Amino acid sequence: MSILNILSRTKLYWGLIAIFLIGVLGSPISSKGNNIFLSYGNLLDVLRQVSTTGLIATGMTAVIITGGIDLSVGSLMAICTVVCAMLLTVPGVTPAVVLGVPTVAVVALCLGILVTRFVFLNIEKSRAGPQATHAIRLDSVRGLVTPGIVGVILCSLVLWFLLPQVGSKFGVVGVLLVAPCVGLLFGALNGFIIVAGRLQPFIVTLAMMVTALGIARLTAGQNNAVLPVYTGSNATADFEMLRSLVFGVIPMPGLFFLGAILIYGAVLRFTPFGRYVYAIGGNEEAARLSGIAAGRVKIATYAMSGLLAGVAAVLYVAQYRQGKPDAGAGLELDAIAAVVIGGTSLMGGRGSLIGTFCGVLIFGLLSNILQLHNINSNLQLVLKGMIIIGTVLVQERNAVDLLFYLRLAFAPLWGGQAHKETTAAKRPSKETPSLNLGGNKK
Amino acid sequence: MKRRELLKLAAVTAALLTTTALLASGNAYAQDKKWKIGFSQVTTIEPWRAQFNKDILAEAAKHPEIELIVTDGEDKTEKQVADVENLIRQEVDALLVSPKESAGLTGVVQQAIDAKIPVFVLDRNVETKDYTQFVGGDNKLIGRAAGEYAVELLGGKGKAAGNVVEIWGGMGTQPAHDRHDGFHEFTDKEPGIKYLLDQQSGDWKQDQAYNIMATALRNNEKIDLVYGHNDPMAYGAYLAAKDVGREKDIKFIGIDGLPNEGVTLVNNGELTATFTYVTPGAEGLRQAIKFLNGEKVEKTITLPTEKITKENAAQILKDNGL
């Protein structure tokens, strides 16, 4: 393998490094002679700023690898910010409590049942050995009763923890439990409708985006466009922890983002579930025929996407000290852009979370650099759009291919039969492109 | 093939170097200025905000010793917070910020204060008292002025009578509530004044106000006065009335009084009056420079409002070169 080959395989990392280098070398120097871009504070700012988008993009990656898409994450995050802010600041039975607490109960119940069943099923499988030909079934005690009991116990434990907090205001652990569960429920609902109704993910999540926005506004109430959270005065001071630096080194939101990438990345790479996700994206029908429960896996990816939106929401509330129904507007598109820059194919079956991590960072560093140079904000948008296209082009094709198609497209302008033949001879790809151009007579 | 890849690599490297060089050379020019002042604006695509930017840039042009950096929050809290963080990293000598929301920006303003940067909060306040100065209009004051004039238009104190349509700005925003409360301090004393709509919000937008007014016109035979929480909404209501041929029977009052917007509309006779909500751009920058030069500044500056009617509209337009 030549060096160039390795270079082109790892081009994403080189892209990240290039952006970083541009940042370092081009950075303005502060009055004290420090490199502003490279200053620790600035890099922490970037990490903190990308965390919300990053968490959303993490969930989105798995969804996109299955060949789906989740447009509802922004609105789901909005609901969760409203729920989170309301739980933190308003005591008593509020819409947030009505929406949140039963959700947590249901999620705990389902989780208890599913996990117990999963454990029993695997014990049974290992007992049957790898040669077992018959389908593995659990008897009613282990298949239904015990999981049910575990679920109910878990559910009541959670309620025992949460219900006393309703009278006063919720604490940090409380909201960290409720908001992600709300996200999870809506996400799972997305997945369920897509699988059960055999509908396009685009449409279902688009509908959910609108619905969720409405629910967020209803929860917030007519007169509350913004629910401010002032830790220490109207909410618990502990909440400040979620926007602080951990050991003075890394910001809490960044830690959540890195954690999510690492854990979810490991799950996608090393577990059967991860294999199934890729298999479904590659060819859903084939995956199903080879015995993968495609529906369940898909529901799980959407549920995870919702859950991470919920986590992002709590961090949003901590960081911006407010919850509001338009909190995540447009966030889904940023997340999708980051995922695609990271080399994940929108067609499904290909991609990785490391790529998404790079994509998110490239985007964040780019915004930071442009802003440090005080480039006109409208021009920034143009540049960002161009960079998305550029990166994806480099990801998907190599430049030689591109040049070929360009030449083919402009061949009629340049005219000349001879030229056409030379381009045809130089064509790098094997199959004939199905371009039918006016001047290109056969 | 290999040569081509090498070429590609060379091209990428060249592009990288050029970008870096361009960025680096861009930094060089502004080093001789005495003060570097950062201004974080919410958005630039709204008329009042555009005027705000125009005012502050015009003021900056009068002070060659300062370099003014204006950032655009694209109407998103996240973006504006990032902007301010960025300005802090650039070690500006003073920070002017016009927050999108009080809560959302409080944290980062505190961060700037902790970094020993004097902070001037413009237009909308934040939930801390450690900033250097707040410069802004008083919406209640403007609402009162509008209410007083409305009573005058409808027959004078004690005998004012008529049906009033009020078109709210955003329901959840403090300015809308203040403009409402101030107005009603005067109109509520008049038993003859009837209010036709119950808290209808046009979200500060002309098209939404048009729709609200169109419905109101259909449902009510007699409307005497429309109070829009800003000029575009008052104008939207005017257009709705015009489309059914009733604009002559109705008086329209707006707020904001931008030269190329409200004042022009008043001058054309479309709006009866507008009340200026002066942008704190020019005053804010003047105060910041004053502070940097070692003078003392007050904690709060409230900008006055001015009533603009047909009589003074033409003069104001002339003063602004329109």
What do these coordinates show?
The complex is a heterodimer of chains A (about 450) and B (about 325). With about 450 residues, chain A is an all-alpha fold. Helix content of chain A is about 70%, strand content about 0%. Chain A contains 17 helices and 4 strands. In chain A, the strands form 2 sheets. Chain A has a two-stranded antiparallel ribbon. In chain A, strand 2 and strand 3 (about 250) form a beta hairpin. In chain A, helix 4 packs across helix 12 (about 295-320) and helix 13 (about 330-340) crosses helix 14. Chain B is α/β, with parallel strands linked by helices. Chain B is built from 11 helices and 13 strands. Chain B has helices at about 1-30, 45-60, 75-90, 100-115, 140-155, 175-185, 205-220, 230-245, 260-265, 280-290, 310-320, and strands spanning about 35-40, 65-70, 95, 120, 135, 160-170, 190-195, 200, 225-230, 250-255, 275, 300-305, 305-310. In chain B, the strands form 2 sheets. In chain B, strands 6, 7, 8, 9, 10, 11 and 13 form a 7-stranded mixed β-sheet that branches. Chain B has a 6-stranded parallel β-sheet with strand order 2-1-3-4-5-12, sandwiched between helices. In chain B, strand 1 (about 35-40), helix 2 (about 45-60) and strand 2 (about 65-70) form a beta-alpha-beta unit. Chain B is elongated, with a radius of gyration of 24 Å. The mean pLDDT of chain B is about 90. Chains A and B meet through helix 1, helix 2, helix 3 and helix 14 of A and helix 1, strand 2, helix 3 and helix 4 of B.
